[in-house]
Amino acid sequence: LRLVAVLKAILEGEKAAVLKRDHHLPLSFHRRQEELKFGLGLQRLQHRIREIQALRDGSAGEGLGQDGGGDGAMQSPMAGAAPPQELPTLILEAVKELELAKQQVLKRIQIWKRQQQLAGNGALFEENLAPLQKRCESLVEVYFQLHQQVMAASAELGTELLPRLLERFNEVLSSLVKR
Predict the structure, then answer these.
(1) Selection from 115, 130, 101 nearest residue 42 by Cα
(2) How far is CA 109 from the centre of its chain?
(3) Which pLDDT tens digit goes with each residue over 51-74?
(4) Ranges of H-type helices in the chain
(5) For the whole prediction, is pTM greater than 0.70?
(6) Per-residue pLDDT tens for 62-119?
(7) What is the pLDDT of residue 23?
(8) What is the mean pLDDT of residues 120-124?
(9) Which residue in 14, 89, 94, 165 is deepest, having the highest Cβ count within 10 Å?
(10) Its Gene Ontology biological processes (predicted)?
């Protein structure tokens, strides 16, 4: 037991020296930073969905979107900076942000797969899939909200834009399911 304790102390010392030499931040810091970026992207996407909903509702009555209480106050900093955009432009931006969020999820899945492979060689591996599952579920939830808004606005999008959007939606969902 004493030999094990000495070896453990030596290995911990070597690990500390390597980290000190390379000035690397802990892996948990990078993972937390990535989670925050993903969360911010999802919030931005949900904001876009609320903007689309407000624009769709506002086309029926202009005053409805402005008297929204808490939502109107929350949207005003970003919405006040630029004039209101057209519905197709907002939807295209939201779909682009959805695709970026999908790429982040797929990147995290690929990293997890690689870490699992390296674990076979003795590398440390955190087997907890809960954060990855939560990320996928959040993205799919936003996907369905955006898809619902697009289908509700299908008459306003026209016959040329709607099929392209639906194709992009199908690609997002199929790539998530396949990987």
Answers:
(1) 101
(2) 13
(3) 989 888 876 544 433 343 444 434
(4) 2-22, 27-60, 70-79, 87-119, 130-152, 154-178
(5) no
(6) 443 334 344 443 444 444 434 456 888 889 999 999 999 999 999 999 988 888 888 8
(7) 56
(8) 77
(9) 94
(10) signal transduction
How sure is the predictor about 126, in pLDDT bands with cuts at 50, 70 and 90? confident
**Which residue type, as a one-letter code, is found at position 97?**
E
Type of residue numbered 171:
E
Q: Angle 27-60/87-119 helices, nearest 10 degrees?
A: 160
**3-state secondary structure (DSSP) of residue 132:** helix
Q: Which residues, other chains included, contact 176 with Cβ-Cβ below 8 Å and sequence gap of 6+? A: 102, 105, 106, 136, 139, 140
Can you give the length of the chain in residues?
A: 179
150 closest CA partner among 126, 169, 135, 134: 169
Distances (CA, A) of 4 to 7, 10, 11, 123: 5, 10, 10, 19
Residues with Cβ within 8 Å of 149's Cβ and at least 6 positions away in sequence, in order, are 49, 52, 53, 56, 91, 94
CA–CA separation, 30 and 28 (whole Å): 5
pLDDT for the residue numbered 104 = 92
